[in-house]
Write a structure and sequence with these properties.
The complex is a heterodimer. By secondary structure, chain A is α/β, with parallel strands linked by helices. Chain A is built from ten helices and 31 strands. In chain A, the strands form eight sheets. In chain A, strands 1, 2, 5, 6, 7, 8 and 20 form a seven-stranded mixed beta sheet that branches. Chain A has a five-stranded parallel beta sheet with strand order 10-18-12-13-14. In chain A, strands 23-21-30-26-27 form a five-stranded mixed beta sheet, with no helix packed on it. In chain A, a hairpin with a 3-residue loop joins β7 and β8. The termini of chain A are far apart. Chain B has three domains: 239 residues, FAD/NAD(P)-binding domain (3-Layer(bba) Sandwich); 149 residues, D-Amino Acid Oxidase, subunit A, domain 2 (D-Amino Acid Oxidase, Chain A, domain 2), CATH 3.30.9.10; 84 residues, Orthogonal Bundle (Arc Repressor Mutant, subunit A), CATH 1.10.10. In chain B, α11 packs across α12. Chain B starts with 6 loop residues before the first helix and ends with a helix. The chains are: A alpha/beta, B alpha+beta. The structure holds flavin-adenine dinucleotide (2 copies). The site of one flavin-adenine dinucleotide has 37 residues of chain A, from α2, β3, β6, α5 and α6. One flavin-adenine dinucleotide binds next to α2, β3, β6, α5 and α6 of chain A.
Chain lengths: 470, 511
Amino acid sequence: MDERKETTQKPAADTPCLAPGSGRDIEAELQPPVDQVDLVVIGGGPAGLAAAVSAWDAGCRSLLIIERDDRLGGILNQCIHNGFGIFRFNEELTGPEYASRYIEEVKRRGIPYLCSTMALELTQDKRVIVVSPKIGLKQIQAGAVILAMGCRERPRGALGIPGTRCAGIMTTGTAQRLSNLEGYMPGRRIVILGSGDIGLIMARRMTFEGAQVLACLEIMPYSSGLTRNVVQCLQDFDIPLMLNHTVIDIHGKERLEGVTIAGVNPDTRAVLPETARRIDCDTLLLSVGLIPENELSRQAGVTLADSTRGPVVDQYLATEIPGIYACGNVLHVHDLVDEVSAESHRAGQAAVRWLEAEKKGLITRAVLKHHAVPVIEGKGVRGVVPQFIEIGQPDAGLDVKDKWRVGFRTDGVYKGGAVVVKADQKQILRQKKLIMTPGEMVLLDLDPAKLADDALKALTIEIEGEAEHG
Amino acid sequence: MNQITNEPLDRQADKTGQDKPPLLYDACIIGGGVIGCSIAQALSRYDMRIVLLEKNTDVSEGTTKANSAIIHAGYDAKPGSEKARTNVRGNRMFEAWCRELHVPFKRNTSLVLAFSEDGIKGLAELKKRGEANGVEGLHLLDRSQLQQREPHVSPAAHAALLAESGGICCPYQLTIALASQAVQNGLDLKLSCRAGRIRRHQGVFEIETSKGVVRSKVLINAAGVYADEINNQLSTYTFKITPRRGEYWLLDKSASDVFKATLFQLPTAMGKGILVSPTVDGTLILGPTAEDVTDKEDVRTTQEKLVEILDTASMSWAEIPRHQFITAFSGLRAHADSNDFILGFSPDVPGLINAAGIESPGLTSAPAIGQELAEMAAGFVQAGKKNSYQPAYQPAVPFREMSHQQRHQAILKNPQVGRIVCRCEQVSEAEIRDAISRPVGAATLDGIKRRTRAGMGRCQGGFCTPKVISLLSDELQVSPLALTKAGGRSQILTGRIGQIDLDHKENTHHG
Ligand SMILES: Cc1cc2nc3c(=O)[nH]c(=O)nc-3n(C[C@H](O)[C@H](O)[C@H](O)COP(=O)(O)OP(=O)(O)OC[C@H]3O[C@@H](n4cnc5c(N)ncnc54)[C@H](O)[C@@H]3O)c2cc1C
Ligand SMILES: Cc1cc2nc3c(=O)[nH]c(=O)nc-3n(C[C@H](O)[C@H](O)[C@H](O)COP(=O)(O)OP(=O)(O)OC[C@H]3O[C@@H](n4cnc5c(N)ncnc54)[C@H](O)[C@@H]3O)c2cc1C
């Protein structure tokens, strides 16, 4: 038996943990037990990369990106379709192309990063414990931290779809990784549950590869994906999008043999048993929601918002723990990577300003949250970010002259409605919108000048108009 | 019919000479659940040739993988029954047994909750019954004592019976460890090997299996819900096993520190109640329901029962955090019509030993049943104990249980320890490779899951599945396309990208 045990001890025959290129390989420089780094960025996806680039450009020279995967780029590496970068670069790029633009920026600046390195723990005083096959376990004392860990997919269990527990059921992201990075097909006759963007993209991808996508089911009266994806991924391939439908049972002992689907009441979402019918299929792909990956944030004591399941932040992307910032999908799930980059640039800058202010001794806990005005989710509004607007802290050097960006989703489809922002009772902004759907984040830019009111107690965002179905 | 096609047997025959008759085992166990493996582990201490037949690709794939995992104190069963006797004995043996096998066990105590004045009387009766069964450490608690022990328990609970000896364990890790220690000590473990027709001929059992005929002097029937089919082929003392399904919900680790003890509900006219319990993995389990089914493989979950669990469990725990569910599953109790365990020699078939009708508290009783039945089998063939016995295989300490210092040292020695494959449960590549190459190693995705917890956490394998597939493929030297979730036709992948799927095209043409 000993000889078997030994086979597990053989060294990993793997690739070096830093991607090739001109980036600085800092493995050799890191010495146990504790390193001091001004800014640690956790996650090397588009959010982490953009935050690091901005932090560098804002003058920070002691920073480090920690990435769990073997390469930088995050989820974009498996998104081989195009549609990325239309806003940021004015071109349609694939996911890997978009990522490589930022990776080049990181390498050109010589920003240090560690791949195959997982941040295991984060403490309130910003000590990061990381682990990697090459350097072992290491503690890094950070001056500031940017959380950019992205999100994960909701599994079947979280939905409680009854039935058997056979092979052939997986999330669309897993299927995407298997097909686009590993080169394998997850199935032949496929039903997709959930019409989020990943589900839509995978419907098309699987069709390209010769699978039959039988239906894409959505429990809500509207798709939660981008309209362009509904058109380009389903309609162009005659894949039925069945709104107000869900899977109510799963059949098959070894591999999936079929699912029972049923319509639901659009108002209560209660299953309509008389509409139940079986679809024979060998694969069920789930695209039923993304959950920001906040285990580390929780450890550090960062407050999380119920409606986004991401950290509570102010308009500078500062969490309630001084010096810890958050951006990208870990903060709230974005539709477009372009917006992830934009948000993360702001987080990078703000973190550096905070570091500078702290070094000058300008920051105390009392200064922070000096005058935090809550942003309230009014009628029709869900998942607002930031949850607070920090008004007037010029002393702390945190004042950013740009407009303050607020993002949220509507709770239904609104046609011809408007977004209204109220400062206490006073309306300070009203924007008409042709259409608002929960699948597309609404972004507003608030003018700081209009909010510089010391007596301000709360901002409220609400939707004018009635939600409609279907 | 007696032609031996079984591979290991052929090899054995070659070694001992061409003309020798096929190997005759001293004992053959049917069933690789906790009961069969407990018997095998105990038997492997004797100087005997033993074989275990399991129809699934792994041990512990039957009822043993899906139950409440409670080590019952023993107040439940009727005094004088086999259930009561083996439960109380088994409970006393459990802790040392798990320690010896390097698998988790925790004496977290049990509480039976009563929700009415009447219930308080019920608790007193339960206490009396427990004492009659020989259970020690039973105490009645009033509401304030209960609230003090478990502050999150629903205020609706009036009183409770505390059982100090109640515990929790990990049934599948236990069973894998048992099988592996038995194999280290000479057990011939035949997986994917279903026992079919059996006859007893000139004092020898001849068991037709999917891998040829197996011959043995003693036959031990530990076939779980199928135990009636084995026994009834041979004996006129027939019995019937009814599969009685129990469904569960499992909650994420973030809910783990809510309760310390296992919370039962006092059975009422309304039903047996639903338990809420921490698991040794730090998750929380809610269940089980009870429903007789006809199909012995029917382990689905149903909408109706999943709702029932929540409704009933909320009596014990008012604020169940519904967004923290990570999975639901079910298992089948092997309910015998006699309502008790059927243990020991068949009255009319010499050498046939039954371990049948092993529903709850079968897991708790497993160490006692294993020891007692092994003794019977050894006595039948008059075998003595071996002089030496290999200790249980000790898997590497899981990454999540190491201190920072241990982690650092371990990674410097073996970089694979520093490669985290399953992020939710923090399982390293080294653990996955060990789970595959250790004795009774994993060959499927579920096998990896049960040995390491990779894929059992909050993302349920979304992140690690592709990595585990490639590690399995590497260690076992098989194509990822051949890998399964749990054996049989449970393939995970259906083809390569860019390859025209001719088989499939044909199939669809023919309808
Ligand atoms: C299928 C799909 C289709 C999409 N289509 C489009 C599209 O057409 N157009 C578009 O604009 N956008 C699209 N997006 C969205 C876009 O990809 C995401 O918004 C973007 O990738 C989010 O960036 P992020 O950096 O926040 O997260 P991620 O890309 O998920 O990056 C997070 C990174 O953090 C790392 N990490 C996490 N935890 C740790 C830890 N503890 N230690 C170390 N590292 C850690 C992860 O490994 C990962 O690399 C799509 C996304 C998907 C999944
Ligand atoms: C819902 C539920 C809750 C429970 N809770 C508890 C609890 O909290 N505490 C407790 O102590 N007990 C509990 N139990 C009981 C406990 O789980 C069982 O007693 C125990 O797992 C039975 O183990 P076994 O080995 O007899 O059966 P199994 O694990 O079912 O093993 C039988 C094996 O035999 C194999 N087999 C069958 N036929 C053949 C054949 N022809 N050829 C080859 N192989 C064959 C099967 O594949 C299977 O692997 C519970 C049971 C259920 C269902």
